[in-house]
User: Fold this.
Amino acid sequence: MGRYEQKRAAPARKKSLTPARRRRRRRILSVAGILALSLCIWLGIYLSTPPAQVEPPPDDPPDSTTLHETTPPDADPPAAETPERGRKKGFYTMLLVGTMDDYNTDTIMLASVDAEADVVNVISIPRDTMVDIDERNMKINGAYGRDGIEELCREVQDITDIYPDFYCVVNVASFVKIVDLFGGVEFDVPYDMYHPDADSQYSINLRKGMQTLDGKKALQMVRYRGTNQNDFGRMELQRNFLIAIAKKVLNNFSLSQVTELIPIINESVKTNMPVKDMLWFYQNVVAEIDFDANVHFHAMPVESTGTYKGLSYVYLDRQAVADLLNTTVNPYDMDIDPDDLNIIRLES
Assistant:
């Protein structure tokens, strides 16, 4: 275990807090809450963070009034570098994951943040993507439930040659509470959505047009797969809606107004990003970025779909995947070679 991990794993020192320290901590948590939200509601939502070879964060987060003095987060994932390649300056990667049942991951996004240029790229990975594992179900969406977030990170590395610096896992059920706390989100639903279900909580019934979606309706929309594009159409809807949420949070809510979100975030978000790093990102990326011009969403290139042993799969296009990675989320100072991607195709 490296020095950074040891530091983060150490038990926190307990101190009695004065009223002033309590107020300061609430301000810090408000900033952390907005970033975690921003990171996560990208169904997750959005971002990730900073340069390698920096000192680990302090035990106590810095005061929010001195964020400009914080150092950028450390990024040193296992097997992420080789002697032949290094990291781009100020470039970070993050795996954003959404799950309904804490087993299958309905949403998998590999994101990058270029803190030097204030540019974010997000690649949606189809949940039915075939991966090279010794299991009957070879879909990538089963990795998290089978062996945790580290296994999912390894399978993402298998098909991209990138082990994410950070991860953020969100139980999408909490999505309803969060959207309701914002008072709903105005969104132009692109078409009628209807899907009856014996369990009413899974039924979907939305009309086309501009409207304010509360939490339950928003969840219906991001889950809908009734178009002829299936998961691919749903990924586009999720991206558009998450951008709408991000804009509302940043444009209409002060830090004090998001304090009440902290308990929900703490219950629903699993991340390896320390609070200090969240603060750095909020101050240096989230607050600076142009969401219309510099946040870009992409779909993982697919060669075809098919079946194997009775299960349906998505087969990735090796060359096109490498090309997309190299123009978007590649954190290294040299191109990713298509031959290094473990992309397979089995059919029966």
